[in-house]
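Quiz preparation item.
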């Protein structure tokens, strides 16, 4: 049975993220940007979260050009009120949050 399944579904199809909603903190550059692109290309809807609005918007525009359903969210994840607003924004738009990539770099004590 397992052999039949392995042969019937191409490997990349097993990793599809259709109908999943992902948020990527620190998504405006570096590893976060790469995660946002990978998740979007795999079929997920992506919320690109960054504390710098222009960076989040730039990556969101890159993904939109690829046909990804995407939003840019500006939030400082060290601030509880901004984290709550971020999650509310995503839930208000897509109704669910299934993947969280907690990538933002934080220095200091909070």
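Solution:
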């Amino acid at each position: 049975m397992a052999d039949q399944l392995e042969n019937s579904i191409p490997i990349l199809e097993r990793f599809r993220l259709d109908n999943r909603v992902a948020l990527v903190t620190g998504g405006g550059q570096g590893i976060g940007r790469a995660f946002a692109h990978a998740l979007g290309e795999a079929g997920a809807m992506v919320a690109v979260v960054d504390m710098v609005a222009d960076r989040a918007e730039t990556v969101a525009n890159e993904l939109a050009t690829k046909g990804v359903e995407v939003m840019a969210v500006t939030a400082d994840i060290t601030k509880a009120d901004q984290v709550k607003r971020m999650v509310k924004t995503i839930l208000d738009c897509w109704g669910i949050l299934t993947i969280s990539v907690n990538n933002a770099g934080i220095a200091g004590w909070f």
